[in-house]
Amino acid sequence: MGSADVVYASSLKDLQNQSGIAADLVDEVTTFNANAELSLTDEFGRVLGPGDVIEGPEWLAARLRPGLAKNFGGVWTDMQAHVLDEYGQVIPGLYAAGEVAGMIPGGGSGTGFSGSSSACYYGGRLAGANAAADATAE
Length: 138
Ligand SMILES: Cc1cc2nc3c(=O)[nH]c(=O)nc-3n(C[C@H](O)[C@H](O)[C@H](O)COP(=O)(O)OP(=O)(O)OC[C@H]3O[C@@H](n4cnc5c(N)ncnc54)[C@H](O)[C@@H]3O)c2cc1C
Fold this sequence. Notes:
There is one protein chain. This protein is of the alpha+beta class and 138 residues long. It folds into two domains: 6-62, no CATH class; 82-137, no CATH class. It is 30% helix and 12% strand. It contains three helices and four strands, in the order βααβββα. The strands form two sheets. The protein has a two-stranded antiparallel sheet. The protein has a two-stranded antiparallel sheet with strand order 3-4. The N and C termini lie far apart (61 Å). The model has no long low-confidence stretch (mean pLDDT 88). Bound molecules: flavin-adenine dinucleotide (FAD). Flavin-adenine dinucleotide (FAD) binds at residues 69-70, 98-99, 103, 115-118, 120.
């Protein structure tokens, strides 16, 4: 059972050997559990309690990687979802909406707006409708 990113073992020592984790897992978990039993804080300042004690018999290590969930930025647009150039001028025929445009038409991220799918839907409908109107007007 397991994969390159997930390792199962029946002891902490085996988990350390199989996963390649550099830290001394037995020492780390022993210290963590002692702090938890006494309701002390861990090295990150989190308040622990007896319910936090980590126990076997099975042990699991999973490799985690950072990922980008939101960009809080993107191209500038006006309220019609036109993309603006560096001088704030409309780039004809270019529209953007959603995450790539700061989520809300008019530069939501720049105003502190943190984003939601409803703003993306709204901007997408606006950009699509305006792009279609452009196309049929030509
Ligand atoms: C973990 C998480 C939790 C969230 N929770 C909430 C929430 O509770 N409520 C809420 O309102 N919002 C939430 N959001 C935000 C919301 O999901 C996003 O803001 C929204 O989905 C963005 O929509 P979008 O269409 O702009 O981008 P996306 O949904 O990222 O769509 C972009 C699409 O473009 C495709 N694509 C990328 N490159 C190319 C290419 N070169 N060619 C063709 N296709 C391409 C991608 O595959 C993708 O399908 C959350 C986001 C995350 C990550």
